[in-house]
Design brief:
The protein is of the alpha/beta class and 188 residues long. It has a single domain, classed as Rossmann fold (3-Layer(aba) Sandwich), CATH 3.40.50.300. It is 52% helix and 14% strand. It is built from 7 helices and 5 strands; from the N terminus they run βαβααβαβααβα. It has a 5-stranded parallel beta sheet, sandwiched between helices. 35% of the residues are buried. The model has no long low-confidence stretch (mean pLDDT 90).
């Protein structure tokens, strides 16, 4: 099974690029599954999403805990299934960057030892000013979707993903996907 991980901050295009990657492999006849966390098909994903739409420290903690359980549930349910050729996990390990700095690094290093990783790990990156432009039309705003939060989380995330394929997602969807495809071409 090919495990592809797509991560990045809100508004960077994770779901869009996950679908484009899925289409790329589906056209080759592969069975592709996308898991985009938090997922709405289970209790933990729904609780994580509800907490993300709230405010305060309790909701921040709930969002983190339920998000991690949702990711672990997806791994348990989909990873290494023989009927899946490519599993795309969207919002996977970088959720740890939303924790306080010391805890973020610890949580990331802890989870990276226990969850599957691969050479197909992509961090889509864009400046907070671009992300804010992209999300301003959304009806729902999550607790982390503010310039100051984006900047703090982006710094922590970039510290965590040093060995990932870091993609500049500040341009168009086509520009970003071209960069991703170039990496996929080399790795396949």
């Amino acid at each position: 099974m090919r495990l592809i991980i797509i991560d990045g901050l809100d508004g960077v295009g994770k779901d869009t690029h996950s679908r484009l990657i899925a289409d790329r492999y589906s056209k080759k006849g592969e069975n592709v599954v996308i898991r985009s966390h938090p997922e709405s098909d289970n209790f933990f994903g729904r609780k994580a999403k509800k907490a993300l739409l709230g405010h305060g420290k309790i909701n921040r903690l709930k969002a983190s805990v339920f998000y991690m359980i949702d990711v672990l549930r997806s791994i348990r349910k989909y990873y290494r299934r023989k009927d899946i050729d490519t599993l795309i996990m969207t919002r996977y390990l970088v959720g740890t960057a939303y924790l306080p700095k010391k805890l973020a690094k610890f949580a990331y290093n802890f989870f990276v030892k226990f969850v599957p990783t691969s050479k197909y790990m992509f961090f889509l990156d864009a400046p907070s000013s671009e992300l804010l432009k992209r999300i301003k039309t959304r009806k729902e705003r999550e607790m982390f979707e503010k310039r100051s939060e984006f900047e703090k989380v982006r710094r922590k995330a970039l510290m965590l993903v040093k060995n990932w394929n870091i993609i500049d997602a500040s341009g168009s969807v086509n520009d970003t996907f071209s960069q991703i495809e170039a990496v996929l071409y080399k790795l396949d």
